[in-house]
Prior knowledge:
The chain is of the alpha/beta class and 146 residues long. The chain is built from five helices and five strands.
Amino acid sequence: MVPDLKAGDRDSAIAELVSLLDKSGKLGKGKCQEIIKAVIKRENEGSTGMGRGVAVPHIKHDAVKDVVAAVGLISSGIDFSSLDKQPVYSVILLISPADDPDKHLQAMESIFKHLQSEMFRRFLRQCQSSEQIEDLLMEADENPYL
Length: 146
């Protein structure tokens, strides 16, 4: 979780989040650049900027054995070719095992459920530390009204 991504554009935000997962040992060894390219390729096929300041880049890849995610916030906002043409301030990167589409769908469903809430999006954007992001995610799982 990165409360202050340094990225100035979509591709560098993706690279920063994938690198974060790689450094934390969540990706297969030596797969970081391959995954960055795969996520960017997926974005070029169709933006995951869902609007309202949020993007959820996601892929299925054999470099992970379980669903992994990274959350990054960009206070200045970046262009993600979002549906509403507005800047993105919150990026949630999701990488799921290629051989388990059900896990991918479950993770996406959970993420989108939370992102439908204006209150959740606002609180997420206000987070200033990794701990605050983590606390918000835990609270959102426990409180369906957040």
